Amino acid sequence: MFATAFILLGASVTWLEVLAFWLALACVVCNTFEIHWGWPLAIVSSALYAWLFWASRLYGDVTVQAYFVVTAAWGWWNWLYRGPRRRAARGAPAGGRLRIATLGLRARCGVALLWGAAWPLVGLFLARCTDTDVPYFDAFPTAGSFIGQVLLGLKLIESWPVWLLVNLVSVGLYAYKALWLTALLYAVFAALSLAGWWRWSRAGRAVRGAPAIGASAPGGA
User: Fold this and answer.
1) What pLDDT score does 13 carry?
2) What is the model's pLDDT at position 70?
3) What global pTM score does this model have?
4) Which of 46, 49, 193, 209 would suit a FRET pair with 63, their CA atoms being 20 to 30 Å apart?
5) pLDDT value for 10
6) Which pLDDT belongs to residue 75?
7) Contact assessment for residue 53 and residue 131, using Cβ atoms and an 8 Å cutoff
8) Which residues of the chain have pLDDT under 70?
9) What is the reported pLDDT for 83?
């Protein structure tokens, strides 16, 4: 899997990175259009990227990918079966899949504060406990990815601006590591984050009259 598939900008691109690239791209496209099959694709692509990042000493990203594998199973179940429970809690008829929702202002501020607090803590851990050469650079998208995945699993619009920022920073991180195909992938992810934000915001207008969700943990939806 680490054999060279082709050379990009003077760096070798492995077959592992090529396969992970296409599966991850298909995953995010599915997420953008609310296609639940994106979640099993996330499980496979995340496992492959964990392998790739381990070889590149991006240990924060290895942790994120392992987290993605676990939470993708939860997200898949949540999208398929959590909808009736959410609607029943709001007094609406049960049935159907999870709908797009939004956070209240207080919860949005809480998400921002959580990310800001987690960033230096993750960076400190990576600096002291691993041999990575980019602890704080790696820590920012790592912390954001943990948050974004939970928001996405809850089908909250706010997942997309979180992913947009994560993806933009990740482009620079992977370019620095000469993972050029992955850097390109995250540039595409950034564009898809804008598309997902726009699409989900339009779709979410149908539920704007419902109370905003104030919690971002699985049990708070």
Assistant:
1) 87
2) 92
3) 0.81
4) 193
5) 84
6) 92
7) no
8) 83-96, 204-221
9) 61
Output the six-digit token pair for 144.
């954001």
Confidence (pLDDT) at 161: 97
- Which residues span the domain enclosing 40? 4-220
Between the alpha carbon of residue 116 and those of residues 87, 122, 152, 197, the distances in Å are: 32, 11, 19, 22
Burial 81-115 (b: 16+ CB within 10 A, else e): ebbeebbeeeeeeeeeebbbbbbeeebbeebeeeb
Q: Is 92 left (phi over 0), alpha (psi -120 to 50) or beta?
A: beta
In this prediction, residue 218 carries a pLDDT of: 33
User: Alpha-carbon torsion 150, 122, 119, 180, what sign?
Assistant: negative
Tell me how far apart the alpha carbons of residues 127 and 2 are, in angstroms, rounded to a whole number.
27
- Could you give the CA distance from residue 1 to residue 4 in angstroms, rounded to a whole number? 8
Side chain identity, residue 52: L
